[in-house]
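can u pls check wat happens w/ phosphoenolpyruvate
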Amino acid sequence: MRRALLAGNWKMHLNIAEAVDLARGVVEAAAGCSDRDVMIAPPFTALSAVAQALQGSQVFLGAQNVAWEAKGAFTGEIAPPMLKDIGVRMAIIGHSERRHIFGEDDAMINRRLRAALEFGLTPVLCLGETLEEREGGKTMAVLEAQLRSGLQDVPTGQAEQTVLAYEPVWAIGTGKTATTEQAQEAHAFLRGLLASFYDKNLAETVRILYGGSVKPDNVDALMAQADIDGALVGGAALKIDSFKRIVRFQ
Ligand code: PEP
C-alpha cells in the first residue's frame, strides 16, 4: 500500500513572514493525518524559517530544485548538502517551468536527480507533455523518453525512493485539469514503464503524484484513481483553506 503524498510547490511566492504563517497553517492542517505524507516547498529564501516552523511536525520540507554538485563554482545553485543542512528532505526536479522557461534538459535533470539521491534527498521527478504533444498523439512517447532519461544510471535501490509527478504542462496554472481518466491512464503507463525498466515490486512501491490545477473540488476524484498516489499542487497550495482540504482529501 503506497502512502499518499500531498505536496505544495510555492514557486516564487511569499516573503519569510508569509511563508512561516502558511507553514504553521499546514502543520495544523496535517495534524492527525497520520496515514499520509505532506510536503511543502517554499522559495529558497524562506527555507530556514519554514524549517523552524515545521520542527516537531510531520510535514516534510522540500526544495524547488537542487544542484548536481556538492559544492563549487556554480553561481546561483544550491547544493544538496546545503539543503540537508537546513532540514530539507525532498527536492522537486524537472518541473515544467524549469524545463520550458529555464531550458533544463533531460541530461541536467538526471544529474540533479542522481545528486539528490546520493545525498539522501527524496527527488520528486516531474514529467509531462505539452498541449501540442498531447494533440499530436505523442503523450506516451514523451513520458517514456522523460522517464528513461530522468532515471538513467539510477540503480533499483535508489529508484524505489524516487517520487514521480505526472504534470501535463497544459494543466499547470491554467485551471484546466486532466480528466481523471487521462491522469489515471498516464499514471498506469508510467507504472508499467517502471516495471519494465526495473521490476514489478519497484513499480508497485514508487509513488506517482498528479499535478495540474489540483483543487479542493477535484482532489477526491483524482485520489480515488488506482495509480494516483498524491498531488503536487501549485496555486491551491498558497491558500491554507484550499491546501487544507487537499491534505484532507477523502
Ligand atoms: C505545479 O506548479 O506543479 C502545479 C501543478 O501548479 P498548479 O497546481 O497551479 O497547476
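The pocket of phosphoenolpyruvate is lined by residues 9, 167, 172-173, 211-214, 232-236 (CB under 6 Å).
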